[in-house]
Amino acid sequence: MGEAVRYAISYSRFSHERQAKGSTIERQEKALNDYLARNPDVHLVQHLSDDGVSSFRGKHAREGALSRIIAGLEQGDFPRPLILIVESLDRLSREPFMDAFDRFSTILKHDCTIAICDMNQDLSRESLKKEPNRIWEIIGAMNRAHGESARKSDLVTSAWRSRIKLALKTGCAIKGYLGPPWVSIDPVTNRYVVGLDELRVVETVNLIFEWRADGVNDHSIAKRLNEQRREVFRASVGKDHKRQGWYQSYISKLLQNRQVLGEMTIRGVEMPKGYIPEIITPELFHRAQAARSPREGKPGRKGLTLSNLFTGVAKCSHCGGTMEMTRNRAQTQDGPAPIKFLMCSSRKRRFKCESQGMINYEKLESAVLGFLSKIPWTEIVKAENPDNPLPAIEDAIARTEIEIAALTEQRDRAIAMILKEAGFEEEFGPVIDRLRPVLRDAQARLSDLKADSNREAHAWRARPGLINNAIEFFEKMNIASDAERLVIRNRLADALAQMITQMKCDTSAKRTKIEVGNYWFSVETPNRSHVTTRGGFGENAALLHQKQTAASRL
Fold first, then answer.
1. 162, 199, 200, 334: which one has the fewest Cβ atoms less than 10 Å from its Cβ?
2. Of 6, 30, 29, 32, nearest to 113 (Cα)?
3. Cis peptide before 81 (omega within 30 of 0)
4. What is the pLDDT tens value at each position of the chain, 554 positions in all?
5. What CA–CA distance (Å, rounded) separates 82 from 232?
6. Does domain 6-149 match CATH 3.40.50.1390?
């Protein structure tokens, strides 16, 4: 009978993008790998993370990956018995104790064990019933995590208050705040001014407000700016990336920004009128506001299904831009349902992309999900690990087990002889003494080898687990309610994001190439009704291409 298997999902988190450049990711990965090495019966099926998401006010549990974990537990989407592996308790929450404990108890309530690596503890409802005093250790850790974050928050708030107080007193720029992109800080007066370098920005801002006042919508304004190759404004302080053209969302925010009128409120403190220069007349500002509809700039109602499973994964083969969902018509009560397409976001905004056409999304989704079961994960993992050390480790394990069996047999024979005749103790006692350290050494080597094997096998086992999850989620969608379907599609999107190496959409040829490890398959979605799926791998591309094309025509 095979060894019993426990299933696990892992969760990691860090609060700020700056931490991604430090050791926090490496530390959390090491904690996970060490745990799996110590527990060879644990099979990791999925890893989820919240990168740059704070847990101080619970955002990760409302909108992040942790919310999807909790929803998955409630819907029964994970295999059992299940373990949630985290580096430390503060990865789960840095909220006040009552809120943090609520997250903790919710996970336990759904029959899930929480493995806290830095405390070397596997906590479940059963283990806490047996040792209730461990609760106080958990409470203490939660209080320390929140206290540390609260102290940092108070220090930051206090520093900003001091800077703002000094700025109110002197009229100088606030230390650490560059101001909006149409101003700079005068090196002599240390005040916010519109310099020569900012005149082009002021001109663009006025143009945006004039267009809006004339009835041009925010999306069209973004397209016009991209067509005219207008330089995008600098990003906020602390952001080192360059904006990729103009976006509708940025235009919407700019049109509501009262800093263009010389008004500014920072961290709840209202600065005097004129603290920063006025660059738009009140009359133009109000005309632009009057031209906006009451609903404009407000988020729409979230639906009960995740529309695009390939968000952030599908890219334009022409420019590398992200593919966005669009529809050919608005939804009406009596009319035909709108058809969903993928379109290059850069082309949509008229920014450095000349691709033509779109990809029929529903045909693409159907073909990709139908192809999942045909992906040969074992071959992918072998190809990704040409120098795989597992065979050598397994051979060493087998040799060591044979050695231990032989040593154990010698020891047992010597013990049997001593038990049989008292006079044999003098003869066979030294034999047992000699075998004892040798056997201990062999057992220690076997334990180390199994830990090495489990660590190396981690990548081999996790990837096939993803496809099993994806296929299971795909099948569940056919019988799920609308509310359940949203959760399932979110989980499916997470799995696909980890499985797909690259997804390139050629809108002109109506073809999408999907790479999964060293394998690839392409989906053609022409205007006619059928869809063709093709696949290939290495030197056998032609053979597999022929097999997959014949088998998967829909």
1. 334
2. 6
3. yes
4. 345 678 899 999 887 655 545 578 888 888 998 999 899 888 888 888 888 777 777 888 888 888 889 888 888 888 888 999 999 988 888 888 888 888 899 999 998 999 999 989 999 999 998 898 888 888 888 888 888 888 888 888 889 999 999 999 999 999 989 899 999 999 999 999 999 989 999 999 999 999 999 999 998 999 899 988 898 887 654 445 566 788 888 899 999 999 999 999 998 899 998 899 999 999 999 999 998 865 555 554 444 455 788 988 999 999 988 899 888 776 666 667 788 999 998 888 888 888 888 999 989 988 888 887 777 766 666 666 667 777 788 888 888 988 898 888 888 888 888 777 766 777 778 888 888 889 889 988 888 888 777 776 655 555 555 666 676 777 777 676 666 677 677 777 877 887 788 899 999 999 999 888 777 888 888 866 555 655 554 433 333 333 343 333 33
5. 48
6. yes
* Domain boundary assignment for the chain: 6-149, 184-290, 381-457
Q: Which fold has domain 184-290?
A: Hect, E3 ligase catalytic domain fold (3.90.1750)
Q: Which two tokens stand for residue 57?
A: 């006010």
The residue behind tokens 């405390």 is 119
CA distance 396 to 447: 11
Number of H helices, E strands in the chain: 18, 17
